[in-house]
UniProtKB/TrEMBL annotation:
Pathway in which this enzyme or protein is active: Amino-acid biosynthesis; L-phenylalanine biosynthesis; phenylpyruvate from prephenate: step 1/1
Designated gene of the protein: pheA
Protein known as: Prephenate dehydratase
Site (Essential for prephenate dehydratase activity): 185
Lineage top rank: taxon: Bacteria
Organism: Paenibacillus albus
Amino acid sequence: MIKVACLTKGSTSDEAAKYLFGAHNDSIEYTYPRMIADVFLATAEGRTDYSIIPIENTIDGSVSLHTDWLVDEVNLPIQAEWVYPSIQNLIGAASELLNDAGGLAYERITKVMSHPVAMAQCTQYLKRHLPHAELEHVGSTAEAVRIVRDNPGRGWAAIGQVSAAADNNLSVLESAVTDHDNNYTRFLLVGHEPFTIRESAAHKTSILITMPEDYPGALHQVLSAFSWRRINLSRIESRPTKKKLGNYYFLIDIEMSLNTVLLPSAIAEIEAIGCQVRILGSYPSFKYVKA
């Protein structure tokens, strides 16, 4: 039995995890810590084999807190990445919030709650249809749905996933309320064992580069090491080292496996100019395919 730590049951992370493991879900034992720190620590401390980490979103960009945990707090290699649609829905009790004709009575909704990231993905919808409603942030979309379930008759609704609505005997009052149709989240599977359940023709490598302080033009030379070898970079992100103001490291995602000739030689060239290079993982990359 493979043990996997994931954010709250019924959340996008939960749905994304079940998508990754697919037909093998019967052999997976999921645990659901409430906080992302506890998700990381479950695997770092050996209580689970893997952790599921949302790391980047189409609308909100990188999740800085999760990136910092991956870099600064734990030593867990990336074993896989995949992209999953973040489809948010308005959830509540149909008996309270639908009118006699079966339509949604927006005026009856007094409060909407959700995770702040999910709420941000629905900003225009909320302004257009529910400007009168109080907005409240909670720890996860699944928690928001549970709070609505436990407070009937108050006109409360949640933004969350279809699976959470079903688990809590609530209704999807309005589906796909996100402001953009192309809202996807990139997830990482982190742990000490390679991911072998599924195969992918696409592979990536993620590295962390710390520049020498006294080497002008170091970033240009780093990028040149990839450029002249025609190695494609899918993401470059700077993050503060937290050691000194104005001191940054660079996270780079590379569309190539480490098991090639070109990539190790590029890394060796980067190290030769005095940069520190840390390999965060070389792993299969999966694209979402709608069932």
